[in-house]
Design a protein that fits this description.
The structure is a single chain. This protein has 18 helices and 31 strands. By secondary structure, it is an alpha/beta fold. Among the domains are: 159 residues, Rossmann fold (3-Layer(aba) Sandwich); 101 residues, GMP Synthetase, Chain A, domain 3. Strands 4-3-13-12-14-15-16-17-18 form a 9-stranded mixed beta sheet. A 5-stranded parallel beta sheet has the order 6-5-7-8-9, with helices on both faces. It binds adenosine-5'-triphosphate and magnesium ion. The site of magnesium ion (MG) has 4 residues, from loops. Pfam families: AMP-binding, AMP-binding_C.
Length: 622
């Protein structure tokens, strides 16, 4: 990396403007972070990635689609692209998936193994009479049966819906009911605890397949191993069309009740292109996506994208732990690593020495998604590993990465990066009530640099969700004036980099100023004692709302009045009195979703004594 002092630029402008008038960045009050340029030696740059503008100008989704095989007569099936086309080519015996058990031992599946196992699963579904478009759910840890189940479901033309295995009985039955699950793939223990008690309320659930029945399935369930053994795998794949549904994903529930987003087989085109441009996947890579396939990241980028690119995907069956993660990165010579801010902040908390104690020389590219990535984490990555973290932005609804810090372009710490080739991003102006401004059926866009607007995407990318399950009206309301409205607020700087401001629901209005929680949180994290922060607005008679921060301290620091004042002083100096928190509370933990996102709505509800809302995705113990 070279950090050029002349290139010092303000980090995201402080979220300070009167809500009804545009304002340019006040660089004087903004935190400053160096732009990070990259040494080509650590990058395996494809020739077309070095010139962002040229790549975007020449890119078409049809061209990306043409790089895939397709099925005869214009058909498309994700499983064929991810597995079977490799299994019938030179990558047949290459290692597709490497599972690491809790004790560190491994088991691997080659592309040929995966093709065979998924075809067997498809045959099982067929034998059970499960048809095209019917829903197959999983409630499983990250085990091989989950992966072969997903791919076999695609091959059968059915729709897969993964559930995170740590969900309690209520969220599990709620989703199975909503999705009218016909088949559930699970373990004996998970079935006993979470499904058997509510089985009578799930009339659509015809078959429960246990992956560990060991010859004696529970009453009302079947032994998957036995069914697989008896099945006759066929090389036939259902002749799915690009627009046929393939996946049902429930969102993380950060802002409210989770929504079911329906995705189609054509999404694989976006998984392919974004795997190339945003994650730099090459055959021969050992790639590790730490997200669980129960969430969209773990499916799009933990299963589909790596397999489509023919790489070896590492799957850790255990829970997160700093030393274990470093060991895995080093021992498995991981080259590309895709993880999340909550994990990165945890590693940062564990310290630079621990990071440097491991040989990470194989690691070439680190990316992050799911929440705003604080600039200090990006810069710390550079210090600890010699590699910056590439933030990227997308949602369950977008199905794939939309905005990213790309492989060969400079990184602006705190920025989400620039739109991927083929993705048109706009910022839609909002009125004083926060509603998008639409005139004569056309959205009014923010064009000045560094002014907030609602992040919007021009419909038409292949992995766009095609519906909210059974909620047509809700789906329709996501689109206005020619755009898909994401519900997130952002700014674009003069060079086209996007800066996350906050979720529409989390943004704080104080004395007519709009304040994005992320910028305040990032500023608080600059204090050496602060490990993590969550910021909300609380009612104030004069200002409407004022900022309250909950901070989690790094090891070795204890709450004290002196420390509180010192954090406040830093925030006031950096952000100014209007934006800095009025109040700081020390917290032992922050409420998070099971996918690792800070639940500011819950902090707010608890603070104000309001109903806590849907907590089905709240992480246990928070
Ligand atoms: P729900 O829609 O149910 O409230 P959710 O929005 O958290 O839940 P996901 O689809 O898993 O569910 O998350 C997408 C959201 O996560 C984005 O809309 C954005 O708010 C946030 N996000 C994802 N990546 C980033 C990022 N790089 N920077 C900032 N925010 C991000
Ligand atoms: Mg959302």
């Amino acid at each position: 990396m070279s950090v050029r002092p002349a290139d010092l630029r303000p980090c995201a402008a402080v979220g300070l403007r009167r809500s009804d008038e545009p304002v340019t960045v006040d660089a004087g009050s903004a935190t400053r972070w160096p732009v990070i340029t990259k040494a080509p030696s650590r990058m395996a740059v494809r020739p077309n990635l070095t010139d962002y503008e040229a790549t975007c100008a020449s890119f078409t989704w049809d061209a990306a689609r043409a790089a895939l095989d397709g099925l005869p007569d214009g058909g498309l099936n994700i499983a064929h692209e991810a597995v079977d086309r490799h299994a019938s080519g030179p990558r047949r015996d290459a290692e597709a998936l490497r599972f690491v058990r809790a004790d560190g031992s491994t088991r691997s599946l080659s592309y040929a193994d995966l093709a065979e196992a998924s075809s067997r699963f498809a045959a099982v579904l067929q034998g059970l009479g499960v048809g095209r478009g019917e829903r197959v759910f999983s409630l499983l840890g990250r085990c091989p049966e989950l992966f072969t189940g997903v791919l076999g479901t695609f091959k059968n033309g059915s729709v897969f819906c993964p559930l995170f295995s740590a969900f309690g009985p209520e969220p599990v039955s709620q989703r199975l009911r909503l999705g009218r699950g016909r088949v559930l793939l699970t373990t004996r223990a998970l079935y006993r605890r979470k499904v058997a008690p509510v089985r009578d309320d799930l009339p659509d659930l015809a078959h429960v397949l246990l992956v560990d029945a060991d010859g004696s399935p529970e009453p009302g369930t079947l032994d998957l191993a036995e069914l697989l053994q008896r099945s006759v795998p066929s090389r036939e794949i259902a002749a799915t069309r690009p627009e046929d549904p393939a996946l049902l994903h429930f969102t993380s529930g950060t802002t409210g009740t989770p929504k079911g987003a329906v995705h189609v087989h054509d999404a694989v085109v976006a998984h392919y292109a974004t795997g190339l441009y945003a994650l730099d996947l090459h055959p021969g890579d050992v790639y590790w996506c730490t997200a669980d396939p129960g969430w969209v990241t773990g499916m799009s980028y933990g299963v589909i994208a790596p397999l489509v690119h023919g790489v070896t995907a590492l799957v850790d069956e255990a829970e997160m732990d700093a030393d274990r993660w470093y060991r895995l990165l080093a021992e498995h010579r991981v080259t590309v690593w895709y993880t999340a801010p909550t994990a990165l902040r945890m590693l940062m908390r564990a310290g630079t020495e621990r990071a440097r104690a491991h040989d990470l020389s194989a690691l070439r590219f680190v990316a992050s998604v799911g929440e705003p990535l604080n600039p200090e984490v990006v810069v710390w990555g550079q210090e600890a590993w010699g590699l910056p973290v590439h933030d990227n932005w997308w949602q369950t609804e977008t199905g794939g990465i939309m905005i990213a810090n790309l492989v060969a372009t400079e990184i602006r710490p705190g920025s989400m990066g620039r739109p991927l080739p083929g993705v048109e991003v706009g910022l839609v102006a909002r009125d004083a009530d926060g509603a998008p401004v639409i005139q004569d059926g056309v959205a009014v866009l923010v064009t000045d640099p560094d002014v907030e607007g609602e992040l919007a995407l021009r419909p038409g990318w292949p992995s766009m969700f095609r519906g909210h399950l059974d909620e047509e009206e809700r789906y329709r309301r996501c689109f206005a004036g020619g755009w898909y409205l994401t519900g997130d607020l952002a700014r674009r700087d003069a060079d086209g980099y996007y800066w996350f401001v906050g979720r529409g629901d989390d943004v704080i209005k104080s004395s007519g100023h709009l304040i994005g929680p992320f910028e305040v949180e990032s500023c608080l994290m600059e204090h050496p004692a602060v490990a993590e922060a969550g910021v909300i607005g609380v009612p104030d008679a004069v200002a409407g709302q004022v900022v309250k921060a909950f901070v989690l301290l790094r090891p070795g620091h204890v709450p004290s009045e002196e420390l509180r004042l010192s954090i406040l002083a830093l925030a006031r100096k950096r952000l100014g009195a209007a934006v800095a928190p009025r109040e700081i509370a020390f917290a032992e933990s922050l409420p998070k979703t099971k996918s690792g996102k800070i639940l500011r709505r819950l902090l707010r509800a608890r603070e104000l004594g309001l109903p806590e809302g849907d907590l089905s995705t709240l992480e246990a113990g928070r």
